[in-house]
């Protein structure tokens, strides 16, 4: 399994950065310097109207409430080096109540995005009824999407044609059942589901961490209790 | 903000300079000789906070001048609170014949400016390491290797000294320079135009920097905005602003 001590999380607000590892510094003009990373992956939590740009790959952005998460993964050659990231204002546009479009870096055509959002937003709203939800827009190259669901029985992808896993840690079995049903029925793609999880559970933070080709999405609570997994539930989504 | 770390602004008319500034291009203006140095100081006054003037004698121009001229220029720089010396350096590619006089002049600059913490805006064709070693010898803290096409193994030393290299729009057509973008870390790069110099089909000018940024962005596989901000960051570091 995975050593979750291996992922890094940084919270960036105003002119400060606070990380779970040492050596992160916020310097003038919105430049962040990261040293002593413990993994190739880092999750930045910033205000929903901000952006973090690093060298490397940005797998996904997620927005919830007033916060936004950026998952960056760094190439090998940056290991052991100082990594500079840039903190900027985002290109996020409000689409509908509680729904945002992330305009930057999406591989999707604007029209497709709008259509999908309209389609999903009604489902999401009927499902949630109340909560704020966040919205992912998948990035250009599906092989870089870490949020693909892979069938645990056949080894074939359920959604995108990639070789990655999605594992969700969710406390409420009801929710898990609903989500699983939705996935199975093909109505929702994975990135919408993450939105819903957040919307339903209503936590203030979602942590996303990866190890190898697997991605974990968890709420703060699971993050904290991960090492005592017996107390939480690990749900692997099966395709039947 | 777009950075032009090496531009012969004194060769442009005022209208054109204003156009650069209106397009958010921040310029470091290098000189060729004493008279363009003086012109640069005036430009720096006129466009305070937008253009940083340098004084210097280009290696191609040194035959007409002597060490006294160098000392006068450095004196003038100190008097006028000028922070930058350039374009100075050594050139074994285009003007190898005058190399001993070039050395005399460059060393005079280094000697005269000692302990004044000037930024050195350098011309170094085929003298990259030679100049690098002089900088160390004279304890130069801030140096910029304009249009760097030198050896890749020197890049590490340049980085470790906190010096920078110039990435010129020439990279759009000059393979040698493009390979430097591949090999050098973004943390030591600053963009420049060397305008209004003509390189093959390119009439170099500050507006071409935008294309250079796109090129860096695609070679380094990072977003355009990341390149812009990092280069701005690097420039502010060397310029101490
Ligand atoms: Zn020049």
Task: Write structural notes for this entry.
The complex is a heterodimer of chains A (240) and B (241). Chain A has 240 residues and is of the alpha+beta class. Chain A has helices spanning 110-128, 173-184, 190-201, 220-225; strands at residues 8-13, 16-19, 24-27, 31-34, 41-47, 50-53, 57-64, 67-73, 83-89, 92-96, 99-102, 165-168, 206-211, 214-219, 235-236. Chain A has one domain. Helix content of chain A is 20%, strand content 32%. Mean pLDDT of chain A is 51; it is low at 1-6, 102-110, 123-176 and 186-240. Chain B is of the alpha/beta class and 241 residues long. Chain B has a single domain, classed as Metal-dependent hydrolases (TIM Barrel, Alpha-Beta Barrel). In chain B, 44% of the residues lie in helices and 17% in strands. Chain B is built from nine helices and ten strands. In chain B, strands 1-2-3-4-5-6-7-8 form an eight-stranded parallel sheet. A two-stranded antiparallel sheet of chain B has the order 9-10. Chain B is globular, with a radius of gyration of 16 Å. The A-B interface holds A 28-31, 53-56, 82, 84, 86, 88, 105 and B 186-187, 220-223, 225-226, 229-230, 232-233, 236. Zinc ion is lined by residues 6, 8, 30, 87, 194 of chain B.
What integer value in Å does the Rg of chain B equal? Answer: 16 Å
Number of strands of chain B: 10
Shape of chain A: globular
CATH fold assignment of chain B: TIM Barrel
Biggest interface and residues each: A-B, 13 and 13 residues
Q: Report the CATH architecture of chain B.
A: Alpha-Beta Barrel
Structurally, the number of domains of chain B stands at 1
Mean pLDDT of chain A, as a whole number?
A: 51
Distance between the termini of chain A: 24 Å
Oligomer: heterodimer
Mean pLDDT across all residues of chain B, rounded? Answer: 96
Bound molecules: zinc ion
Estimated structural class of chain B: alpha/beta
Give the N-terminus to C-terminus distance of chain B in angstroms: 13 Å
Task: Note poorly predicted spans of chain A.
Answer: 1-6, 102-110, 123-176, 186-240
Strand tally of chain A is: 15
> What is the domain total for the residues of chain A?
1
Structural class of chain A: alpha+beta
The percent range for helix content of chain A is 10-25%
């Amino acid at each position: 399994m995975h050593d979750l001590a291996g992922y890094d999380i940084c919270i960036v607000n105003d002119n400060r950065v606070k990380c779970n590892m040492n050596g992160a510094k916020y310097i003038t003009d919105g430049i962040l310097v990261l040293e002593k990373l413990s993994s190739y992956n880092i999750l930045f939590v910033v205000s929903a109207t901000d952006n973090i740009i690093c060298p490397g790959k940005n797998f996904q952005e997620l927005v919830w409430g007033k916060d936004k998460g950026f998952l960056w993964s760094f190439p090998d050659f940056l290991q052991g080096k100082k990594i500079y990231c840039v903190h900027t204002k985002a290109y996020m546009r409000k689409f509908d109540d509680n729904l945002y479009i992330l305009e930057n870096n999406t591989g999707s055509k604007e029209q497709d995005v709008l259509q999908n959002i309209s389609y999903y937003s009604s489902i999401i709203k009927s499902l949630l009824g109340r909560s704020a939800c966040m919205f992912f827009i998948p990035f250009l190259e599906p092989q870089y999407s870490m949020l693909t669901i892979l069938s645990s029985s056949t080894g074939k992808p359920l959604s995108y044609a990639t070789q990655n896993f999605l594992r969700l840690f969710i406390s409420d079995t009801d929710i898990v059942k609903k989500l699983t049903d939705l996935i199975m029925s093909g109505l929702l793609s994975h990135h919408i589901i993450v939105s819903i999880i957040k919307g339903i559970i209503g936590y203030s933070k979602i942590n996303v961490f990866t190890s190898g080709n697997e991605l974990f999405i968890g709420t703060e609570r699971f993050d904290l209790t991960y090492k005592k997994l017996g107390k939480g539930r690990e749900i692997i989504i099966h395709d039947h | 903000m777009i950075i032009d770390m090496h531009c012969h602004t004194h060769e442009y008319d005022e209208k054109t300079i204003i156009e650069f500034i209106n397009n958010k291009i921040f310029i470091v203006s290098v000189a060729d000789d004493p008279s363009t140095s003086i012109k640069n100081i005036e430009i720096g006054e006129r466009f305070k906070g937008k253009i940083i003037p340098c004084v210097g004698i280009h290696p191609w121009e040194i035959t007409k001048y002597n060490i006294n001229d160098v000392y006068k220029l450095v004196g003038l720089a100190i008097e006028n609170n000028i922070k930058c010396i350039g374009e100075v350096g050594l050139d074994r590619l285009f003007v190898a014949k005058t190399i001993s006089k070039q050395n005399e002049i460059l060393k005079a600059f280094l000697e005269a400016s000692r302990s004044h913490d000037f930024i050195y805006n350098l011309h170094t064709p085929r003298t990259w390491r030679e100049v690098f070693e002089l900088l160390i010898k004279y304890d130069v803290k801030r140096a910029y290797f304009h249009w760097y096409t030198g050896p890749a193994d020197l890049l590490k030393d340049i980085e470790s000294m906190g010096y920078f290299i110039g990435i010129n729009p020439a990279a759009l057509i000059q393979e040698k320079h493009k390979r430097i973008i591949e090999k050098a870390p973004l943390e030591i790069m600053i963009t420049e135009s060397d305008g209004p110099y003509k390189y093959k089909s390119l009439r170099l000018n500050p507006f071409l920097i935008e294309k250079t940024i796109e090129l860096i962005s695609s070679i380094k596989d990072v977003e355009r905005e990341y390149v812009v901000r990092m280069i701005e960051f690097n420039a502010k570091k060397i310029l101490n602003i």
